[in-house]
Design a protein that fits this description.
This protein is α+β, with helices and mostly antiparallel strands. The chain has helices at 12-33, 41-61, 65-76, 87-104, 108-127, 157-163, 195-205; strands at residues 140-147, 164-175, 180-189, 211-215. The chain has a 4-stranded antiparallel β-sheet. Helix 1 (12-33) runs antiparallel to helix 4 (87-104).
Length: 223
């Protein structure tokens, strides 16, 4: 079972055995991962198909340098426009691709073990309270819109001292055709339950203009 089914040449019967094993195990893998990974239906369909797609490429490229270069060039033409994936989604795709290489080289048993075992391990680890640091507060992106006439240097310091345990200036820009400023800060609340009170006090200082408190990511911090 753990020996390669391919010999010097790839016969149709062996290829279809590999295809059936890759597709069946791929859909089982996607089904198991769907219990913990939050994503779209299309993501899981693609994840289920990746082992077979990679395996088919490896099967026909194996030992053929010219075909490998041609397929590499074809893949380089593909431009992905999807949103940035989560760590779970990236891991799911990498595991699917890794098993596809095993299937493509004819090692059906190893491909099945890679997909099935890692899916179960991921599922079990996600239920265990490992690496959870609940006491560590998450950074948030605070955006405050103020009128052009308001001198913003130090105007919010008193509120920040009361509600925040961390604040970093992330920049300022004009908005509203130059009639307003938008201030950006990287912050951590002392008490998340006081979020509404914090925003209400900011609104009393900025003339009831827009105040946004968002999860902070490096790509989101676009002033």
């Amino acid at each position: 079972m753990f020996d390669s089914i391919y010999s010097a040449t790839v016969t149709p019967s062996r290829f279809f055995i590999m295809a059936g094993a890759a597709l069946a195990t791929g859909f089982l893998y996607a089904w198991i991962m769907s219990f913990r990974v939050r994503s779209t239906k299309r993501f899981f369909i693609v994840t289920a198909l990746i082992p077979f797609v990679v395996a088919a490429v490896i099967t026909f490229v194996n030992g053929n340098i010219g075909a490998g270069v041609a397929i590499g060039g074809a893949f380089s033409l593909i431009r992905f426009r999807s949103a940035q994936g989560s760590a779970d989604e990236i891991a799911a795709i990498l595991v699917a691709m890794g098993s596809g290489i095993a299937f493509g080289m004819g090692y059906i048993g190893y491909g099945i073990v890679i997909l099935s075992a890692l899916a179960v391990i991921f599922l079990l680890l996600s239920f265990l309270p490992l690496f959870e640091h609940k006491s560590v507060a998450e950074d948030q992106l605070l955006r405050i819109t103020i009128p052009e006439s308001l001198e913003y240097n130090g105007v919010f310091d008193e509120i920040f001292d009361h509600y925040l345990k961390k604040v970093e200036n992330a920049g300022v820009k004009t908005t509203g055709m130059g009639s307003m400023f938008r201030l950006s800060y990287k912050v951590q609340l002392k008490n998340p339950a006081e979020e509404k009170a914090f925003i209400d006090e900011l609104r009393t200082r900025n003339g009831n203009l827009e105040v946004a408190l968002l999860p902070f990511t490096e790509t989101q911090n676009q002033l």
